């Protein structure tokens, strides 16, 4: 592209294309840009003719960007991050506050980030959170690359050429929690009979997903009780799960350090029991995922190092 073509090129076409990628459809992009659908369509066609390659494929799920469109989107997003940071620093020259957009589960926000701020870590960082229940790999990638998030914290690494994944925690110690006023709290130990008899509150996962994390040796339990755990409360709100347990005879399985944090620091009215040997919970890992070329790499590295420092102190 020579200098004359650069001067003649309308960069608004890139902005329009980018909005179609983020929105997923011409109509939603048109609403966001306050343009007509036909104007958005004409702009996309004009950009395609200029570049000489197809940028979108129409599917039943909406407008699917081609790899060329995604490559342009990646470069455009990177450039806009640089511009936004420069403008922000210019407007707030007296005190620079870094803004980081985080997509994570309610547990990550309530447990990991709260402890960072209690230690006065990252006090000069403004976090903007988007909570999410368990989502699949491709959804995580889309939310990181196309939805303006700076970092996505998930229980699996994101495999993508433009994304770096760093393991920040690995949990293999779990306990059963119940209300400290329940009948179970007065017992000496938690048994398989309790596991199948008492109602369960489940955080985030569906019943099918939990079975992938928890395995039970049922040989000591009558067959009519096998695989009959009673899930009566399912929520993506950690505080909602805890409140429900405190006010009922429900039980839940939590990472040990999460249960101890809510009991010791948040004064939750809970009691804990070790899991019986017949119940096994798979190791739960947490990963920090971010765009490798992000302009906020210094702030993201600070977040990751702070996470690791807190976990190593446990």
TrEMBL record:
Gene3D superfamilies: Periplasmic binding protein-like II, Winged helix-like DNA-binding domain superfamily/Winged helix DNA-binding domain. PROSITE patterns: HTH_LYSR (PS50931). Pfam families: HTH_1. Residues 9-66 form the HTH lysR-type domain. The keyword Transcription regulation applies. Keywords: DNA-binding, Transcription, Transcription regulation. It comes from the Bacteria. Belongs to the LysR transcriptional regulatory family. This is LysR family transcriptional regulator. It comes from Rahnella inusitata.
